[in-house]
Amino acid sequence: MSLGWSLGRIAARLGKLVGAGDAGVDGVTTDSRTAGAGDLFVAIAGDTYDGHDFAEQAIAAGAVGAIVAPGRSEVEPRIEVPATGDALLELAAMRREELTVPVLAVTGSTGKTTTKDMLASAIPGAWASPASYNNEIGVPLTVLQTPSTARALIVEMGSRGRGHLAWLMPAVRPDVAVITNLGVVHLETFGDIATLADAKWEVVEGLTDRGVAVLPADEPRLQRDHPGVTHTFGVNTTADVVARDVTFGVDGCSRFTLDTPVGERSIALQMPGVHQPSNAAAAAAAALAIGGDLDEIGRGLAAATGSRWRMEFHRGRFTVVNDAYNANPTSVEAALRTVAELPGRPIAVLGLMAELGGISAGEHTRMGELAAALGYAAVIVVGEDPGLASGAGAIARSVASADDALELVAGLVREGDTVLVKASRAVGLERLAETLVELSVSRSGSAA
Questions:
Q1: Considering 50, 96, 415, 435, which has the largest number of Cβ atoms within 10 A of its Cβ?
Q2: Do the Cβ atoms of 89 and 167 come closer than 8 Å?
């Protein structure tokens, strides 16, 4: 796509243009490695890097200019701004002002990425956040990259505290705001569930005039008034859009009747998980809110596939469920319950659920107890453990590293078993999951 802007136009809105020329700007990037002809490079300073150090590299790769803080880079042409993060957001706000297609924002404690993926499949031609572009950098880049041919824009939005979503609203200003759920997640930063609810509600407060809030019917903390319209969703409950008569196959995927104000459709999902019918109902409600066709929505939900490292099923002599992207009590419980319903013995390789604050020990113990109650053959705990092993009791095995876990699983697993791999991203268990997949399909593997 081409933004069709100029450095002069951008400088007039953001800051001071230094250097000759008024080149056209086709795109925006914060990564010098992906910079190309026509791009504007925004130098973002992170915890472990400073984009100002790579501004010259971006220009050499073809970027037409750079946005930098005063005194941080002498590259030309450059636009000097007080804060480059604010400038990136303002660029996205400029792009948002040009968009005439519906904008849908998706947030929530869990299920954001999956619901976004389902929604993108249910609205053919929509542009959606790549991967998990849901933070202060990813959200503006998603908006800026929206093609002029997009039928809709779907933005995944994460939050780690009050004010985060509100800060992003100038770039998003959604016509439809989806809150998937409120769960026990990031309480180390939010403090309590009430503050979490307030933080997520910011996406509703950012709605355009007469915007639509899509909310879980069974969440009392979100039963609030707002100037727009509310559509509710749920599973086997009373709501505007309901997934009812849910059943699960041996592959962990669900079948259900999608009941909506404009009719019913039978849905068979490709995405495994006991939590997926709720995500599908949320996506359907959002798609209907912008006038989506129910047949098209049904086909899209049935065809939807998930993002990487989220309930990925890999079948060989034993099955590996790679759900290692992240973990919190809500998502761990859903994964444990899903795998426990599958044929063969369930084995869990688990790690730390980060950022739970004062409830960490209790929630880790509860997950261990749940695995034991569900009949898991073993719970292998990798690294730091606030309570998983004590909760799991006799079936628990604690190891220091992913390599130790691999050796232990290789000795335990039998043909037909299912191995769940799940932890917060910092634990890095996705590499272990990928190695287990190789073991499962290898003829020379050591599985018994």
A1: 96
A2: yes
* Domains recognised in the chain with CATH numbers: 5-81 (3.40.1390.10), 99-303 (3.40.1190.10), 312-441 (3.90.190.20)
**Residues whose CB is less than 8 angstroms from the CB of residue 128 and which lie 6 or more positions away in sequence, other chains included:** 116, 117, 119, 120, 142, 153, 154, 155, 156
Residues contacting residue 86 through CB under 8 Å, at least 6 positions apart: none
d(CA 337, CA 319): 15
- Closest by CA to 271, choosing from 310, 322, 226, 242, is 310
CB contact burial 283-293 (16+ within 10 A = b; e otherwise)? bbbbbbbbebe
The two tokens of residue 5 are 């802007």
Cα–chain center distance at 205: 21
Digit-coded pLDDT (tens) for 126-178: 999 887 789 999 999 999 999 999 999 999 999 888 999 999 999 999 999 99
pTM of the model: 0.83
Q: Distance (Å, rounded) from C-alpha 255 to C-alpha 180?
A: 20
State pLDDT tens for residues 202-251.
999 999 988 999 999 999 999 999 999 999 999 999 999 999 999 998 88
